[in-house]
Amino acid sequence: MMRLFIRAHDLGVTGAERVAERLCALGLDGVQLVAYKVLPDVAYAPGAIDGARAAQVSAALKAAGKSVPLLGAYFNCVHPNGEKVRNGIEVFHDYLRLAHDFGCDTVGSETGSCNGDPWVYHPDNRTDAAFARVVDTFSGLCDYAKDYGAYVGMEGAFGHVCYDVKCLASAVKEIGRDNIRIIFDLYNYLDASNIEKRYDILAEGLQTFGDRIHVFHIKDCVVKEDGSLVQCGVGKGIFDYSRILPEIKKVCPDANLVFEGTVGEDIPDAIAHIRERL
Question: 226 Cβ partners below 8 Å, 6+ apart?
Answer without folding.
Answer: none
